[in-house]
Structure formats: structure tokens, C-alpha cells
Specification:
The chain is an alpha/beta fold. The protein has 11 helices and 13 strands. The protein is about 35% helix and about 20% strand. The relative contact order is 0.15.
Length: about 325
């Protein structure tokens, strides 16, 4: 889904936004109560290896997957990822391989599988145990901050620095998955995903947070193709991909946004192909979107890979140091 405009902080003063929010506020109270009760009453089970969770406060994307991939690169080849498999039909536990389909396992697990061992499981504890039995020395969860079933040794929250927490209300009156105060209390660190150039706004809601706040941004790992381009993306904020292309000096003739995790059907792809032909352009998309394309279509579409770059690598190393010490003690890793 695309976040509705009334979720944004900068439209909260509009009459229509206030009216919609007021109508939905009683539902948001119920949602917040149910989430808090589930977290408080669920007995967490601990895996036999350390578990890092990369989650967020809000509905939609905030950079969790690029951060997860960056942490894995830091933690070495025995780091396994664990996802719910959102958008896929398989419940798991299942070890994902790059040749599987997004309709079966979801798009993000396919990206993780291209980096190394990756698992999906609706039952997070069962998935963690399967990964540990298969040789994982550490497990990195992509999402699951509000899922209490699996104990977490380090909870990192990704925040889109430009969007923040929106209007600060809980779903459906706002984008929050739970009361902000509850989420902040459980977070061990926050990673602010800054825009490609410059920094995001100052967030007053972080004033009382005393734990580490790191800053990172998405950076392309290559150049955009030369010539005219028709860009498309199904993300929580697809405009960020389009802005990245423009920042690289790409000649973007058309930019076509879709909703997050959009499954591209024949009509979508025919439309995009026709648009590219009319513009004399090449199609280009994100790695995450490419994972949802068939192999035939993937071969016809250019992809712009990105990675999470941290402003202070030493701060990230310090955050991960206790986990790495446990890995070294258990397995003699450097």
C-alpha cells in the first residue's frame, strides 16, 4: 500500500486530514492496545545463537533490507538472515535460494539469498532454530521488531529520516505499528536513513532517546545506464529511487510508481514495455522489484543496486562488538 497523505506530519493541520484522523483514532487505540498486550503476554523463546532484529516503528519501508545486508557483510559468512517471507505463500521454515520465486518466498528473502544463507518462517523461533542447526553463528532478522515470539539480543530500528514517524499516530490513524513510547523503550539503537544528499529534519520525538543513533544513506553501487530511461518501482516511497537516478544524472523520461511489494502482472509489464518503446528508452528498476519479475522480464530490465553506507563505521562496529564477542567465544571467530 502507499501511505495515505494524512499520515504525514506536514499535513496534520489540514481540515480533511484532521477529520480522517479523528474518525480513525478509536480504531488506532484498539490496535495499539492489542499490539502492546500481545508483546507483553507472549513468552519469548531464545535461539541457541545471537539474534539481531532490524525493524521499524512504522508501516512500510524504512531501509530495513539494505541495513540487514550491510550488517551481514560485517558479521561474516556464518551470518544467516531470517524473514517472515511477506508476500510469499510458503510458511517455512525454508532455506531460500536465489532461483525461487517471489510469489513463493517474497522479494526481500531473494535479495538476502543472493548474499548468503537466508531463511523464511512465519514461526520466527522455528526459523531461527533451523538456521542455527544449519550452521548459523548469528541470525539477522529483517523485520519482526513487534514480533515477541523470538528473543532478540540486539534490536535496531530503521527510520526514514525524511518521513520520521509521520503524524505520530498509531495505525490506521497514522503509520505507527505501536505506541512510539513503547517502541523507543525496546529499541537498542536507531539508524536514521538520510536522503542521498544532505540530512533529514530534526526529530523532537528522539530528544529523550539515550541509546545510539547512527546515520546512514542508500548509495548506488554503480552508474545508471546511459540513454533514456523509463524507471518503475514498487516501494513504500518509490520517489526515493527516482531521486537517486536523477542524482546520478540519469535521463529519466518517465517515472512510474507502484505500491510496496507490487506483483507485476502482464498488463503492468506490457504497459511499461510500450511506454519504453514510445520514449525510445530502456526500463530500469530496483533490485527488490527485479526479484518480483520473471527471469524473462528480468533480462529485459536494467537494475540499479544500492547499499547502505554509514556515516560513522566505527559507531556501527561498536554497536555490533558484543555480538561479535559472543561469536568469537562460541566459535573462535576473529
Amino acid at each position: 500500500m502507499r501511505p495515505p497523505e494524512f499520515w504525514r506530519a506536514d499535513v496534520s493541520g489540514r481540515d480533511s486530514a484532521l477529520a480522517i484522523r479523528a474518525l480513525l483514532t478509536p480504531v488506532s487505540w484498539l490496535y495499539a492496545w492489542a499490539t502492546a498486550r500481545r508483546i507483553a503476554t507472549t513468552i519469548s523463546r531464545n535461539a541457541s545463537v545471537p539474534v539481531i532484529c532490524v525493524g521499524n516503528f512504522t508501516v512500510g519501508g524504512a531501509g530495513k533490507t539494505p541495513i540487514t545486508r550491510a550488517l551481514r557483510a560485517k558479521l561474516g559468512p556464518h551470518a544467516h538472515t531470517l524473514s517472515r517471507g511477506y508476500g510469499g505463500s510458503v510458511e517455512g521454515p525454508l532455506r531460500v535460494t536465489p532461483d525461487m520465486s517471489a510469489t513463493a518466498v517474497g522479494d526481500e528473502p531473494l535479495l538476502h539469498a543472493s548474499d548468503g544463507p537466508a531463511w523464511i518462517s512465519r514461526d520466527r523461533f522455528a526459523g531461527a532454530q533451523a538456521a542455527a542447526q544449519a550452521g548459523a553463528h548469528v541470525i539477522i532478522m529483517d523485520d519482526g521488531f513487534q514480533n515477541p515470539s523470538l528473543g532478540k539480543d540486539l534490536s535496531i530500528v530503521a527510520v526514514d529520516a525524511e518521513y520520521g514517524v509521520g503524524n505520530g499516530a498509531v495505525f490506521p490513524a497514522g503509520p505507527l505499528r505501536e505506541r512510539l513510547s513503547d517502541g523507543l523503550a525496546r529499541a537498542d539503537a536507531i539508524i536514521m536513513m538520510q536522503p542521498a544528499e544532505g540530512g533529514g529534519p530534526v526529530h523532537t520525538w528522539l530528544a529523550g532517546f539515550s541509546k545510539p543513533i547512527l546515520h546512514a544513506r542508500l548509495a548506488p553501487t554503480g552508474d545508471a545506464p546511459r540513454g533514456k530511461l523509463v524507471a518503475f518501482a514498487g516501494l513504500a516511497r518509490p520517489e526515493k529511487f527516482f531521486d537517486t537516478l536523477e542524482g546520478l544524472g540519469a535521463d529519466v523520461e518517465e517515472a512510474v510508481p507502484y505500491s510496496d511489494h507490487h506483483l507485476y502482472g502482464d498488463d503492468d509489464l506490457s504497459f511499461l514495455a510500450q511506454l519504453a518503446e514510445e520514449r525510445g528508452a530502456q526500463l530500469i528498476t530496483t533490485e527488490k522489484d527485479a526479484a518480483r519479475l520473471s527471469p524473462e522480464w528480468r533480462a529485459r530490465v536494467a537494475v540499479l543496486p544500492v547499499t547502505a553506507k554509514f556515516d560513522d563505521e566505527a559507531a556501527l562496529d561498536a554497536l555490533l562488538a558484543p555480538i561479535q564477542s559472543r561469536m568469537k567465544a562460541a566459535h573462535g571467530e576473529a
